């Protein structure tokens, strides 16, 4: 089951966020942003994403 980190918004399968090392995860999220080039993506820059991956747009 995939979950989204409430701090970083990255979607992961693990129990600990690989970016912030937090455990505040939610399985209730919507929207998906796949970041391949964080430095070249305007959306990634707006969301302050620095690492490639799958990100949730909204987390409840």
Features:
60 residues, Rubrerythrin, domain 2, globular, three-stranded antiparallel beta sheet, mainly beta, 1 helix, single chain, two-stranded antiparallel sheet
Write a brief structural summary.
This protein is mainly beta and 60 residues long.
The CATH level-2 architecture is identified as Single Sheet
- Overall pLDDT metric: 97
For the secondary structure, the number of strands is 5
Beta-strand percentage range: 35-45%
Distance between the termini: 16 Å
- Look up the CATH topology: Rubrerythrin, domain 2
Largest sheet: 3 strands, antiparallel
Quaternary structure type: single chain
Q: What count of domains describes the coordinates?
A: 1
Describe the structure.
By secondary structure, the protein is mainly β. The protein has a single domain (3-59), classed as Rubrerythrin, domain 2. It has one helix and five strands; from the N terminus they run ββββαβ. The protein has a three-stranded antiparallel β-sheet, with no helix packed on it. It has a two-stranded antiparallel ribbon with strand order 4-5. The longest helix is centred in the last third of the chain and has 5 residues, at 42-46. The protein starts with a strand and ends with a strand.
